[in-house]
Structures are given as C-alpha cells and as structure tokens.
Amino acid sequence: MGRMRKWSLAAVGVNLLLGIPGIVPVWLLWYFAANWPLAALGLTQREPTENDGMLPILVVGVPVLAVFALVWWLANRPVRRRAELAPRLYWPLSVLATLVPTFVLMAVL
C-alpha cells in the first residue's frame, strides 16, 4: 500500500472515530441555534420547557466544544503532515468525515 494512501486512510479513520463523540458537540450547537438565534428569526420553534436561559449552554457547551475542538485539532495535526494532501483540501474533508456519524445518526433516527 502506498504511503499517501496509508495516511489518507488514517486520516479518514481518525476523523470517523472522532465523529462518534463529536455527535455531542454538534447536538449542543444545534440546541443553541434552534432555541435562540433561529427561533428569534422565526425559522424554528423554541423548546417550550427551555427557561434556563443561556447560562447552562455557556457553562456546559463552551467547555465541551473547546475540548472537542482541541482534541480534534491535536489528532489531525500529525496525520495532516504525513497525508500529502493540500491543507485547503485536507481540513474541509476532515470536517466532513467527522460529521459523517452525526449524519448517519440523523438518517437512522
């Protein structure tokens, strides 16, 4: 197996595996967007039992998103250097591969 193909498969594998716990940050982002900015624009309906405000999202959501983003970036840096793909191609493909488990879960449910 060629060197480039080996590291490209490693990149896909790393991002697919990171996408499994990545479902939680994606859900937190959707929950925030659906209950505040999109609801204010009239595009979604606010959760009727949501009366806590934005503090829980700030206390829970921001650290979860920050930790996930840091782990994702640290896991992708060494793979990116060896993958021989242009950075402008590698990073968007990595984001899409990370979102695959979320899309699969949405399609199944």
Description:
By secondary structure, the protein is mainly α. Helix content is 77%, strand content 0%. Helix 1 (3-19) runs antiparallel to helix 4 and helix 2 packs across helix 4 (55-82). Keywords: Membrane, Transmembrane, Transmembrane helix. This is Integral membrane protein. The chain crosses the membrane at residues 7-33, 53-75, 87-108.
Approximately how much helix is present in the residues? over 70%
Q: How many helices in DSSP terms? A: 5
Strand percentage lies at: under 5%
**Helix-strand makeup class:** mainly alpha
Q: Any low-confidence stretches, pLDDT <50, length ≥5?
A: none
> What is the radius of gyration?
17 Å
β-strand number:
0
Characterize the largest beta sheet: strand count, sense, and whether it forms a barrel: none
Q: How far is it from the N-terminal to the C-terminal residue, by CA?
A: 37 Å
Shape: elongated
